[in-house]
Design goal:
7 helices, 11-stranded mixed sheet, alpha+beta, globular
Length: about 260
């Protein structure tokens, strides 16, 4: 393993060991083998866990059983467990499936050193930090159009974060020929900038909006002293990020379950 990847993995495993997390209403509960990330909502993402240390499949199964009981005792109706290739823990799929989890999403983890990233701008693209309610509504509109789903759930979190936690969260709109074309945001966990929400309206794709928004987020991360940028990628985003020098950090699997029948 090269020194850069080792440094990234060390930063990734300490993602929640920060004095303040960027997600409003969420609390990091840091433990030895895994971390909990807990908020007030009932959706699985508001009771989220991820591994920090490798272990046998038997031990992993025991931990999952215990955590399901703890979540129920805390009044939860659902939970998620994200498995990454950091740390490497093969043969977990059957463990999750045998305990009532389903794999909701599978993506690629990508990362790059902030110091190494070079992102060209585009003269046709005008990027602006989201600072008004109207701009935030445009973010929701683009997300709904691109992902074909209601994005109003972001109002209870991201909407407040970009106005109240500007040192940790920034969201942007990209305009092409004066029209809102694309949107994205970034959240800082310690020295890691986590990239979110890259979505571009169909008629504006291929015109540099995605890269221009990445340039803005990279600049913010650099100003705040971050060492790495990280993203959980769709295949479309992965192609762009790889072309800019991002490296593969492994596969991410989002496992979710409902607890009422446990």
């Amino acid at each position: 393993m090269n020194s850069e990847k080792k440094e990234f993995e060390e930063a990734f495993l300490k993602l929640f060991e920060v004095s303040e997390v960027p997600d409003l209403g969420m609390q990091a509960e840091v433990m030895d083998c895994f971390d909990r990330y807990v908020g007030e909502g009932n959706e699985p993402c508001f009771y989220s866990l991820r591994w920090k240390k490798p272990m046998s499949t038997d031990a992993a199964g025991d931990h999952i059983d215990t955590e399901k009981k703890i979540a129920l005792e805390r009044g939860r109706v659902s939970m998620e467990w994200k498995s990454y290739d950091i740390p490497s823990m093969p043969n977990l799929d059957d463990v999750f499936l045998s305990r009532g989890f389903i794999m909701k999403r599978k993506m690629q983890l990508m990362y790059i050193s902030v110091a190494k990233l070079k992102v060209p701008g585009s003269p046709r693209v005008d990027c602006r930090q989201i600072e008004t309610e109207d701009q935030f509504e445009e973010l929701l509109s683009i997300g709904k159009e691109v992902f074909e789903e209601d994005m109003t759930w972001l109002k209870n979190g991201l909407r407040h974060e970009i106005f109240q936690k500007k040192n940790l969260v920034r969201a942007y709109l990209a305009y092409v020929d004066g029209k809102a074309a694309s949107t994205s945001w970034i959240k800082l966990f310690g020295n890691v900038g986590f990239l979110f929400g890259g979505s571009t309206r169909l008629e504006f794709r291929g015109q540099g909006a995605y890269r221009s928004l990445l340039r803005e987020r990279h600049q913010f991360a650099k100003e705040q002293g971050a060492s790495f940028l990280m993203a959980e990628c769709t295949p479309f985003s992965q192609i762009i990020l790889e072309s800019l020098g991002f490296l593969q950090g492994g596969v991410i699997k989002q496992w979710v379950t409902h607890l009422d029948s446990f």
